[in-house]
Amino acid sequence: MKKKIVLALSSILLLSLAACSGVTTGTDDEQQGSDSASESTSDSGSSSDDTSAGGEFSGQTIEIAVTYTGSQAKAFNKLADKFMKETGCKVNVSEYGDDYESTMKTRMASNELPDVFQTHGWSILRYKEYLKDLRDEDWVDDYDESALGVIQDDDGGIYALMTSELVNGTLVNTDVCEKAGVDPYSLHTWDDFTAACEKVKEAGFVPIGSISNPGLLANIAGTWVSYEGEQAEDSDAMLDGTWDWKGYKPLLDQYADWIDAGYFYDDILTMKDADLSERFASGKAAFNIGNDPAFLVSCLELNPDANFVFLPTFASKEGGKEFVGIGEGGTFGIFKDTKKEELSEAFLAFMAEPENALALNDAIGGVSCLKSSMEQDDSYALKVFNEMKDKYGDTDILYENLWDRQYMPSGMWPIFGNAVDMLFDDYSEKGVNACLDYLKENYDDLYEISKEE
């Protein structure tokens, strides 16, 4: 069982600090359902003696639930401490860590949720019915267009503040591409990509420098089976549980052709993450598909002279959508039945301020998605993302939620991981069909389970 962090203070000390506020543990009534959390006081190094006792919200307390642990939790607690000093309130930070999803499901069942909580990728798909619609908040107009594809509902509703986003697409080592005579910005379809891979291989490099992981099959899938103008548009069937997966086979066939052509590392099934970074940084491979620019940051630490760009995921045919997957980064919603609505709104407005948003984004490694923060963000990940947007200014890029989060039942991510290992082990027609059957069987089972939740 997860151990609770208990801060033991003497009654004399408590009385002496009664007029002061700080990140603290709430009473049992304030913390219903949070027994598995690490309930933190601020360890930011600031003193409660400096905290305002007469602010706008003096005497009020809110609970904020987060997934953060370690250094991320420490950074968030510093921000909570700063907020309390500005407002005079108290904040309970419930650090659920690995127990976050199970604990939140329990609290959803009893309709006793924290005043503010992280939506961790699920503001619309899981938590919408429990969240206050925030579309009229001032910071909504500050969103970059890329964020709206994941944070905005079909009816225009916005249920969370997102200070940063996860960005997913195609990573390119331009040093390798230059030596191979490949212009990465000329690639728009998977046929273009395959032709480029052949040129890279002929030049003596590995075309696709990826490791075997679920993202190989999940993160590029939408450009084959979901989006407008692609080879298949099966989104409705995916969502209602009737998908037959036939439209997915061309993607597996394409992978089988790439494997057969020798476009991947020979030891892909035994490679480690450290191997992947070292090889991409040192210019052994040209492309890494279905990945995040944060990977490039780790490569630059190994080789500061390397040159990289970020591209969308390519379309499956001419006229199809080129796609950038967007996931929720630092994202917080307000419980619709909170009794501290104004204080909760004030906290989100505080987090939307550039200085505070950037502090959180730096701690969790997200790409800023509020325009006021983007103007001050000098991170490498945002740099290559903005370069992509400039280069593709005339291209209709689709910014949407990560495909598996949008269209697959919960639990499919590790299934894709098993399936891609199966494919690298046997990429014959028999192996492709076995992989397809495995995916469909698990999708059917998990969809039925999801209906019972």
Tell me about this structure:
With 453 residues, the chain is of the alpha/beta class. The chain folds into 2 domains: 11-163 and 329-376, 3-Layer(aba) Sandwich (D-Maltodextrin-Binding Protein, domain 2); 167-327 and 381-452, D-Maltodextrin-Binding Protein, domain 2. 41% of the residues lie in helices and 14% in strands. The chain has helices at residues 11-16, 70-87, 100-109, 145-151, 174-180, 190-202, 215-218, 222-225, 235-240, 249-260, 273-281, 294-302, 341-352, 354-364, 371-374, 380-391, 403-407, 412-425, 429-452; strands spanning 38-40, 61-66, 90-95, 116-118, 161-162, 164-173, 206-208, 285-291, 308-311, 322-328, 331-334, 367-368, 397-401. Strand 2 (61-66), helix 2 and strand 3 form a beta-alpha-beta unit. Helix 11 (273-281) packs across helix 12. The model is unreliable at 1-36 and 41-53 (pLDDT under 50).
CA radius of gyration: 24 Å
Which fold does the CATH topology of the largest domain refer to?
Answer: D-Maltodextrin-Binding Protein, domain 2
Strand content: 5-15%
Total number of distinct structural domains: 2
Low-pLDDT stretches: 1-36, 41-53
Query: What proportion of the residues is helical, as a percent range?
Result: 40-55%
How many helices does DSSP assign? 19
Principal-axis shape: globular
**What profile does the largest beta sheet have?**
7 strands, mixed
Q: CATH superfamily assignment of the largest domain? A: Periplasmic binding protein-like II
* Total E-strand runs: 13
CATH domain class name of the largest domain:
Alpha Beta
> Can you name the CATH architecture of the largest domain?
3-Layer(aba) Sandwich
| Average pLDDT taken over every residue | 87
Q: End-to-end distance, in Å?
A: 24 Å
Question: How would you classify the helix and strand content by structural class?
Answer: alpha/beta
